[in-house]
Amino acid sequence: QVQLVESGGGLVQAGGSLRLSCAASISIDSINTMGWYRQAPGKERELVAGITSGGSTNYADSVKGRFTISRDNAKNSVYLQMNSLKPEDTAVYYCAADLVVTTMRTIYWGQGTQVTVSS
């Protein structure tokens, strides 16, 4: 069982920045991929950014050049630096851990943190 706790959400004006943090209950060295997802009202949950255990990253086209995902293995944490925020970035942001143990794959989710960008 992996517990993920997000923090750092809030209300910010358009053009501002926020940094989300996700703390895992286990060593993230053992987690294949960690990522940030978001879900806006009336929309499906979507991948925002992901980072592998090897440090490779990928981003949704809508956030490329504005968001940066990073990980600190010593702190068992993953971060999402969000710059140049837009009203359309408003959503609940979820941290996810994609863990593969032998042949079993399990995705764990945090409780989510609200990000609201005002125009």
Estimate the global geometry from the Cα principal axes. Answer: globular
**Uncertain residue segments:** none
Q: Please give the radius of gyration in angstroms.
A: 14 Å
* Helix and strand element order: EEEEEEEEEEE
Return the average pLDDT rounded to an integer.
Answer: 95
> How many β-strand stretches?
11
Q: Which structural class matches the secondary elements?
A: mainly beta
Measured by DSSP, the beta-strand proportion falls in over 45%
User: Helical amount among residues, as a percent range?
Assistant: under 10%
Work out the helix count.
Answer: 0
Major sheet description? 7 strands, mixed
Terminal residue distance? 40 Å
Question: How would you summarize what this structure contains?
Answer:
With 119 residues, the chain is mostly beta strands. It is 0% helix and 56% strand. Strands 2, 4, 5, 6, 9, 10 and 11 form a seven-stranded mixed beta sheet that branches.
Search tags:
mainly beta, seven-stranded mixed sheet
Explain this structure to me?
It is a single chain. 0% of the residues lie in helices and 56% in strands. The protein is an all-beta fold and 119 residues long. The strands form two sheets. Strands 2, 4, 5, 6, 9, 10 and 11 form a seven-stranded mixed beta sheet that branches. It has a four-stranded antiparallel beta sheet with strand order 1-3-8-7, with no helix packed on it.
